[in-house]
Write a structure and sequence with these properties.
This protein is of the alpha/beta class. The protein has a single domain, classed as 3-Layer(aba) Sandwich (Rossmann fold). It is built from 12 helices and 15 strands. Helix 3 links the parallel strand 1 and strand 2. Helix 2 packs across helix 3 and helix 8 crosses helix 10. The termini are far apart. The relative contact order is 0.15.
Length: 345
């Protein structure tokens, strides 16, 4: 079988690719002690991330309790996760009694958060992105924690800079990004207080054929909608590669908390990507505006030194997205708003 096909024909094939563990990940789970819980498992990333962990455990021949926690507003998603042979617990993590009823397992992945609509409900945004992490850091104070953050905590930087590094000072623009830095600080505080290992994942951005920056651009090109060039450059990484790095970050969690940027090595041009989708869809993109001198860009050289570079190249993902959309397959309908420059999501 071709390791990476020319096209992705079905949801099942897509899930297999997104959750396929490497030999290195399988080896990690063969050695890792303790059970695993995914807080906020429902959504774009959680199901395939947890499924990769389950597949790695199965391939390693180890039996771990793997738990996914969410409000599960979508019961079909709950069933899908259970079909992966992952235990589910349904409830509101902001309910302290519910949170403190969860099993205190050794390994915690924190995926909960709020972005879209954050400007319309700032109090809820801060509760989800900063207050809840404080509760989780306190309750799971003896666990290894890998927590998702975002590259949005960095300022816009010039293309020539090569992107923000983990050692750069955060300068979050807007309350969403500020609340995400609050999330990091709460996990950092908990790690320092309790001396438990924590890794903070600044992801920027994960992509696959149903959502992501590439889908946002492709949708506009395919539907003859204007493509705004003002946020002219971006970084992305295939979600399957991101999933593997997140799982393997368990080994690099330390106290005080360690920050790891996760994205692809290329600085991609919105204009060039739009033109490529134009060729693949046989349409002329409607390009508007001009590229600003700065963009939200991250540098992932630290991650590459720890985990190696992503296996799937972005030109392959562009082909997958174009084929998926050409056949009018299901999209998740969750735009990234990557073009936002004022931090108002």
């Amino acid at each position: 079988m071709n390791e990476y096909p020319d096209k992705i024909a079905s949801d099942e094939q897509l899930e297999e690719l997104l959750s396929r563990p490497s030999a290195t990940t399988i080896d990690l789970f063969s050695r890792m002690d303790g059970d695993i819980i995914f807080l906020g498992i429902a959504g774009k990333i959680g199901p395939s991330l947890a499924n990769m962990a389950k597949r790695a455990c199965d391939a390693a021949g180890v039996n771990k309790r793997i738990i996914g926690v969410s409000r599960f507003r979508n019961q079909e998603e709950k069933k899908q996760i259970e079909d992966f042979d992952i235990e589910t617990i349904q409830g509101d993590l902001l309910d302290r009694d519910f949170l403190e009823s969860l099993p205190k397992v050794k390994n915690v992945f924190y995926l909960a958060g709020m972005k879209f609509g954050s400007e319309d409900n700032l109090a809820q945004t801060w509760a989800m992105n900063a207050y809840l992490p404080a509760l989780v850091a306190e309750y799971f104070n003896a666990s290894r924690i890998v927590a998702y953050s975002t590259g949005c905590v960095y300022p816009l930087v010039t293309v020539e800079s090569g992107g923000s590094r983990e050692t750069d000072m955060p300068q979050p623009v807007g309350e969403y990004a500020q609340s995400c830095l609050g999330r990091e600080r709460m996990f950092e505080y908990g790690s320092k207080k309790h001396h438990n290992p924590v890794a903070l994942i600044r992801l920027n951005y994960a992509v696959e054929p149903r959502y992501g920056v590439l889908v946002d651009i492709a949708t506009k090109v395919k539907n003859n909608l204007p493509v705004d060039l003002s946020m002219g450059y971006f970084n992305v990484i295939w979600q399957g590669d991101a999933n593997e790095v997140v799982l393997r970050s368990l080994e690099y969690a330390v106290s005080p908390a360690k920050v790891i940027n996760i994205t692809g090595p290329e600085t991609l041009s919105v204009k060039e990507v739009a033109l490529e989708f134009g060729k693949l869809f046989s349409v002329e993109p409607k390009l508007v505006g001009t590229e600003a001198k700065t963009a939200l860009l991250s540098n992932s050289e630290l991650a590459y030194s720890l985990f190696g570079e992503p296996k799937v190249k972005i030109n392959k993902v562009i082909q997958w997205v174009a084929h998926w959309m050409s056949e009018d397959k299901k999209l998740l309908g969750k735009p990234t708003h990557f073009e936002v420059r004022d931090g108002k999501y």
